[in-house]
Amino acid sequence: MKLVIKRTQADMKGVFGGNKGVQFNLHYRLMLTPEEASVVERYKLGYHVLSTSGAGVNETVNDVVRGVSQSVNSVPVLLRNEDVIKSACNSFYTLLEVAKSFGGEETIHFPLKDTSGD
Length: 118
Fold this sequence. Notes:
118 residues; alpha+beta; two-stranded antiparallel ribbon; 36% helix
C-alpha cells in the first residue's frame, strides 16, 4: 500500500486581473496491491471512513483510491490535511493487516519489546 501525494499552487486573479493571492492544491491517491484490493473487496472496507473534513465530508477508502483533490488558502492548512490523511492511511494499513490475518495465526514472543522510545 502506498499513498501518492501531489502539491501544486496557482495564482488567484481578481475580476480586473489583480493578484488575489495563491491557492494551494493537494491531490492524493491510495495505491493498493492486488492482495490488499482483494481484502478491501472481501470485507467491504471500501466504505471505511478514513477522514472527515471540518465541513463534515467523509472520505472513504474508495474515495482515496480514486483520488482526492483539495484546494486550500495556506501552506499550514495543506500540511495539516496531509498529516491527517497520512495518519488515516497508517491506521487503515493496520486494519488491513488484521483483516488479512483471519484464518491464520499470530505468534507473540515475550517479553514484548518496548516501542515507546523511553
